[in-house]
Amino acid sequence: MKRLFVIALLFIACAKKEPGVVRASGAPSGGGAPEARTTPPPPAVHDAKNIIQSSMEFGEFQFTDAAYSLPVSHSTMNDPQRAAARDLASAGWITLDEAGDVMLSDKARTDKRFLLRPNGILDIVPLAKKEMGEVQEVRANPDGTASADFTWRWIANEVGDAFLRNQYQGTHNATATLLVENGEWKVLKITAR
User: Which domain holds residue 102?
Assistant: First the structure.
């Protein structure tokens, strides 16, 4: 009988406890009880666009596609690299000797985008930059984050346009996951879709 009485008291105590009012600021609502924070509504489409295009994550997203590494020795190149070398030579960025090995032209020697490494690899970066398109939709996620679907495209510079023009054509789709940090929406990650 004592057990039944104790269980009844616990049940009554738990049933009477009311959850505190949750406010966006996280400030107590009277009783001093700790409270959960609410997540503000997801940003509007225009605001999401500004958040995404000014984020470091957008700058880093698929950044490696804006670079190219080319062996300087013809014997270590594959067929696509040989074709790239011919295109770069036609545009005047490099010259090819009798064996087909790469040498920097005068204009490439003074261009910071061309980095000839001691291991015989020529790195060319950047070849293009990203341009933000439009945000199509922003939706709230159950975990308190938001997802923003958007478009973007590459804008090739004169070097990228000389040999990778097809790679930089078209519009791309991606989704940014946004989260609230210190009361502001920020980009957590960007994934291609």
Answer: 68-124
pLDDT, position 40: 84
Q: What is the total residue count of the chain? A: 193
Domain membership of residue 37 (yes or no) is: no
Are both 60 and 134 inside the same structural domain? yes
User: Tens digit of pLDDT for each residue in 108-140?
Assistant: 999 999 999 999 999 999 999 999 999 999 999
Question: Is the separation of the CB atoms in 160 and 127 below 8 Å?
Answer: yes
Residues 82 and 116 in one domain: yes
CB 79 within 8 A of CB 135: no
Closest by Cα among 40, 22, 36, 35 to 140: 40
Q: How far apart are CA 29 and CA 24, in angstroms?
A: 11
Residues 94 and 50 in one domain: no
Strand ranges in the chain using DSSP code E only, listed in sequence order? 68-71, 94-96, 102-104, 114-116, 121-124, 128-140, 146-156, 171-181, 184-192
Give pTM, 2 decimals: 0.72
Indicate whether 103 and 152 sit together in one domain.
no
